[in-house]
Amino acid sequence: MAGKNLVGPEADALDLGAVFRALADEHRRSVIARLAADHSDSERGCNSFDLPISKQTQTHHFRVLREAGLVHEIDYGNRKGIRLRRADIERRFPGLLALLGAESPGGAAPR
Amino acid sequence: MAGKNLVGPEADALDLGAVFRALADEHRRSVIARLAADHSDSERGCNSFDLPISKQTQTHHFRVLREAGLVHEIDYGNRKGIRLRRADIERRFPGLLALLGAESPGGAAPR
DNA sequence: TTTCGGGTACGATTCAAGTCGTACCTGGAG
DNA sequence: CTCCAGGTACGACTTGAATCGTACCCGAAA
Known about the structure:
Two copies of one chain form a homodimer. By secondary structure, the first copy, chain A, is an alpha+beta fold. Chain A has helices at residues 16-24, 26-37, 55-67, 86-92, 96-100, and strands at residues 4-6, 44-45, 71-75, 80-84. The longest helix of chain A is centred in the middle third of the chain and has 13 residues, at 55-67. The A-B interface holds A 16-17, 20-21, 23-24, 26, 29, 92-96, 98-100, 102-103, 110 and B 16-17, 20-21, 23-24, 26, 29, 92-96, 98-100, 102-103, 110. Chain A binds a DNA duplex (30 and 30 nucleotides) through helix 3.
């Protein structure tokens, strides 16, 4: 019941190329944007994003996000949760998450 | 001698996905990082970056950067120059250029 | 235990992107 | 004029990424 924490790279090892590659995809960017918009940073179910793609493809995208160091994945066996690594991201790439609000409704779009 | 200015998208039409896709490539990111590090924003020759790739491939990369709206290209016929669209980028995606300094020497790497 | 929903593993497919070879264009130098 | 260096156009190749089908795993609930 505890849930195994699937680990990604250390905060210091975050690679800007991998991050940009991860955020280049529309689906992954939408996930991170919604996580960034929720300032409570609570854990969220992986199937709560209503992505218009099959579950196999979702598995692939969440893996990419984890390997890029953007999210933590918590495996409960029959379901999974993710949590935004906001502190790590802000430390290495300050301001990056704020950029995602520029195209997502509900985010802090500057005007 | 005047040089035709090859135009990219308008400042308001900059797409975050296209920008991330453009910056996902190491060569293109290195070009933008060096342009961003030079705060004088002067025009720069396209062959002044010593990219370890053929000139045909360089043509491809500079085109991607222009179509993403990150640089202006100035065509002189037998040579070409590029200029960073710093103001436009800062207006749409404030702080983005600063992130590139996190991995390039000469930039403002935080420590 | 069986059932069921969420998730993964592996493979196949499709498509986009990075790369370069060949040929050609352009403007300046000699 | 010719030559030359920088740049482009077009095509081909190769790799990687996104997607899904099939089969299987896991934990909770009936």
